[in-house]
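Re: that chain you flagged

S.,

Sorry for the slow reply, it's been a week of failed gels. I finally had a moment to sit down with the sequence you sent. For the record, here it is as I used it:
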Amino acid sequence: MTITYFSTRGGETGLSFTDILLGGLAKDGGLYLPESWPDFSPEDFRALAGAPYSDVAYQVIAPFIGDDIPHSDLKKIIDKVYADNFSHAAVAPLVQIGPASFILELFHGPTIAFKDYALQLLGALFDYVLEQRGERVTIIGATSGDTGSAAIEACKSCKNIDIFILHPHGRTSDIQRRQMTSVIAPNVHNIALEGTFDDCQDLVKAMFNDAPFRDEMNLSAVNSINWARIMAQIVYYITSGLSLGAPDRPVAFAVPTGNFGNVFAAYAAAQMGLPIDKLIIGSNRNDILTRFFDSGEMKTGSVEPSLSPSMDIQISSNFERYLCDLLGRDTDALKTLMEKFKETGAFDVGENIMAQACNDFTAYKCDDEKTLAMMRECYEATGYSIDPHTAVGLYAGWKAREEGAISDLSIPLIALACAHPAKFPDAVQKAIGTHPALPAHLSDLESRDEKYDVLENNLQTIQTYIKERAPK
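Prediction finished late last night. Pasting the structure tokens below so you have them in one place:
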């Protein structure tokens, strides 16, 4: 079966994987989705149980790529990425922290955050396809903390890529910033924007929607607006589910999320056949997603700094993909809703659609005080240290179990550890009184030279900056 792709806003259909890999954001402003989901039977899943991570990754990813990349080449790319760039033999190991409660450690890549699991593969796929086509691209991306460093790490040695990453000036942790700005390479450019993450994300979208600029610079994206990011993240939901008995028993996932990309990958795994009892969203004080699942209204607010800065977001871009499915893939209806959201900062959905959404997901808000308490409780009960983002997800997962949102107490709850605690040492120190050490490969990070430019929140300023630095 060859899977093709369409834009959530209806302007493009029937596209191949390599078309949407390099395109990133659809030209009509929508996001790409596969026109059908690969169908894995229980027997297919059982055959993957216990297999190495890279073998599972190949079986999960290959249907989405089809014949765009020869299967033998794709297998080599995947094997190399997960063998060379991850420090744990299991790649994404599980750690039990209580009865039927597990942490999925997604911090064994080079930048010690979950974004590595997709971006290391994305960088390799970009380089392969660009080499085959004899092309060069300019990647632009916005980051609230972790995407930027993972994207830069994946692209810094790619000879056919120039990468520009926007981060909100002063709104990431020092470790997060340094992981980006200490990579001194001619094709790497860091922009500290005087604004919020949502401002960064809006500028990236505006540049993609500026057709002459997009074509002149041959723009591409590494944010989770790029479908390949979501595709690669599906893998660790399946490997962890298989490790705990799927497909012969369901599992539940608790995911700290702001932009909805990571938890949408879990939703995709469910569409492919993985038995998931409940998907649980953890929001910090910037709780647009929790408010939606409580009220049926998606409404933006002001972005407030928190202990979990990667989730300091009020516009969840990837929610558009899920909303498209909720609307029965009615792209006209989706486009109308998104235009209303852009104009008014709000939209609501009908009762039937909301009932389906609440069947798929439940969501909980965890403010800074509860985040610190969760970090402390986990450490005192188990000796296991978690970062504030992980704490937000774990709080939501335990709350869901307490309130009966998970249908059976025996169902394994898998909480995603999306970053190493050493990425947020101040929060960890405040919670448990211990300063976490960076892994050996980052031990000198705080003494490395940095290179970045602070720029105003102005589209023309950013575009001029990029034009002056990207080779034509």
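What I noticed first: The first helix runs from residue 17 to 23.

Talk soon,
D.
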